Request: fold
Amino acid sequence: MKYISDKSNTYVDQGNSIISKKILHTCCLGSCSALYFHLNGYNFLSHIDGLETTTEDLITVINSIFSKKDMKNYSLKGKLIIGPWCADDCKSANIGKEVIKYYEIQNKIFINKDIQWKDTIIVSGTGINL
Reply:
């Protein structure tokens, strides 16, 4: 897992997923997608690359902190952002949708396709911003 970090925030590179109490951010989705949420004081952000990321990769990272029950039962808010060069059924979007389905959190994660290539996604304990 590669990332750039300082005392207050962490950049999530393409193909990587991170859970942290720090602010997480990524940008430049292109044909990638991003799945993110905030739960129990932790931020999760995955910059999903259809060539480097698998559904199992994301589930492994999420399960390192949260159980399937946590994901389903606790207050969770988040989004799956589909990159501007990615159609609805592109590989990176499908990986995100499979993770959402696995955890049965379809009613807690909203899908957003309104993003530009250079937009930055920021996940913090106080909110989730584009």
User: Anything to note?
Assistant: The CA atoms of residues 4 and 110 lie 27 Å apart. The domain at 3-129 is CATH 3.30.1330.200 (60s Ribosomal Protein L30; Chain: A;). The longest helix spans residues 91-103. The helical segments are 55-63, 68-73, 91-103.
